[in-house]
Amino acid sequence: MIEKQDRVIVEMTIAAPIETVWAAMRDPEQMLNWFGWDADTLRDEIKYIFIDHAEADEATKVISFGEYEGVADRVELRTTPEGTVLRVVRSGPVAGDWSAFYEDIWEGWITFFQQMRFLLERHPGAQRRTLFLSGKLETPGALPVAALGLEMLWGAEGGSEASFELPVGETVAGTIWHNSDRQVAMSVDGWGDGLMVITDQPAPNAGPNGGGTALLTTFGLSDAAFAALEQRWTAWWRERFVKAGD
Question: Which pTM value belongs to this model?
Answer without folding.
Answer: 0.92
